[in-house]
Structure formats: C-alpha cells, structure tokens
Design goal:
Elements: H1 2-26, H2 37-62, H3 72-103, E1 107-109, E2 132-136, E3 139-144, E4 147-151, E5 158-165, E6 170-175, E7 182-191, E8 194-200, E9 207-214
Antiparallel strand pairs: 1-9, 2-3, 2-9, 3-4, 4-5, 5-6, 6-7, 7-8, 8-9
Helix pairs in contact: 1-3, 2-3
C-alpha cells in the first residue's frame, strides 16, 4: 500500500512539473507587470493551490464511499495523489491545447481585449495584404479583388468569401455558401512576413487572434 502511494506521488510530481512548463508558455504578457517574474510565479503558486485545494476537496468526498474496508484516513492518503494527478492531467491537456493553437497554429483563443476595444495604429497601411496568398494554421488563403478563397489543409475543401473593406485595416468576410454568415476582422499589425488580425467568434462572445503568414510566392 505504501509503495502504491509513493508511486502515485512520483506521478503527481512529474505531472506538476509538466504543468508548470506548459503554464509558463501559456502565460502571455499583456503589460509589464503581467510579464514580470513575480507575476508568473504568483500565477503558478495560485494554480498549484487551486489544483491541490480542489484535489483535497474531491478526495474527501471520494473517501466517503465504502470500499476495501479501509479507514477514512488511509483512503485519504491513497486517493489524494490519484485525484491530484487526474486534475493535473486535465489541466495539462487544456493548457497544452491552448498553447498548441497559440504558438503553432497562430490562433490565440480568448485574448484579453474585447473586439470593440481593439484599434489599429493610425499609421498602419494594409494595402499590401489586400491581395496575395497567405497561410494560417495550415489553411491557405488567396485574395483576388473582392474575393477570398480559403482551402482547408486537412480536407482540401475550398470556401469562397466576399471581402469588403470597411476601412483601411478593417474588413468583412461573407460566406458565399451562407450569406447570413458575416465575419468582422481588424488588422492590428502588418509585416513583410504577414499580418496579425482579430475576429469575433461565431457566437460573438469571444475575440480570436490570427497570425497570418505571407506565402513566399505572394507579392
């Protein structure tokens, strides 16, 4: 029994370190204070307290169920690392998924700013991205005149949108399959490698950031 408890605590320790690593990646600095080491450390401490606090509460409930004629205290000792490991595994998957989208797919889920609060720099020029070929998250985007053609990387399915520039760096995309689906975008940064834009999710509740790369053949 004691060996089993030790093994589970080792698993918990390993998962905790994996969680810390992923959590550090997913903590993005929105200002100088949030980017500081003190802020990051406090977030990690708070996350740890939440995980083990929740684990302790769940363990106390699980230990109430009668099984194997064990005492309540022994069940607490046995189940605490198991429940904590399961919680850590859940958060690792959740934050790992977020990190994958933000760092590898170029899509940021639920950024801090609301869509209406976002405002492009006054001197931003978006002329160079109004036509050309781009890539985001494995999908190919091609702009020709008032049309935007998107090809999904996985299925090679092609979707056509009508693009309407409502400002120098703001535009609407209207799906030609369903013209009731209109998506708003705001471009916040343009570089030689591509551009960064924000959009509202289909629910209209969340803001999503896209890091769009310019393809080499695009001029």
């Amino acid at each position: 029994m004691k060996n089993r408890i030790r093994i589970w605590w080792v698993v918990t320790f390993i998962l905790l370190n994996i969680f810390f690593f992923i959590r550090i990646i997913t903590i993005h600095a929105f200002n100088d204070n949030e980017g500081s080491i003190t802020f990051r450390a406090s977030r990690l401490i708070a996350d740890t307290l939440i995980i083990f606090g929740s684990g302790s509460a769940l363990t106390a409930l699980v230990a109430l169920f009668p099984y194997r004629s064990l005492t309540y205290r022994l069940k607490l000792q046995l189940e605490l690392p198991v429940v904590s490991s399961l919680l850590l595994a859940f958060f690792i998957v959740m934050f790992g998924y977020t990190s994958f989208y933000e760092n590898f797919k170029g899509v940021k889920l639920f950024p801090k700013e609301t869509f209406e609060e976002l405002k492009a720099p006054d001197n931003l020029d978006c002329t160079s991205i109004k036509k050309g070929k781009f890539e985001v998250g494995g999908d190919i985007i091609e702009r020709q005149g008032v049309w935007q053609f998107e090809t999904t990387g996985r299925t090679n399915e092609r979707t056509i949108y009508k693009i309407e520039w409502t400002g120098n760096c703001e535009y609407l995309l209207t799906s030609q399959k369903d013209t009731t689906k209109v998506f708003r975008f705001k471009v916040m940064e343009v570089t030689a490698d591509g551009f960064t834009c924000y959009s509202l999710s289909e629910s209209g509740r969340n803001t999503i950031r896209y890091q769009v790369k310019r393809m080499k053949s695009s001029k």
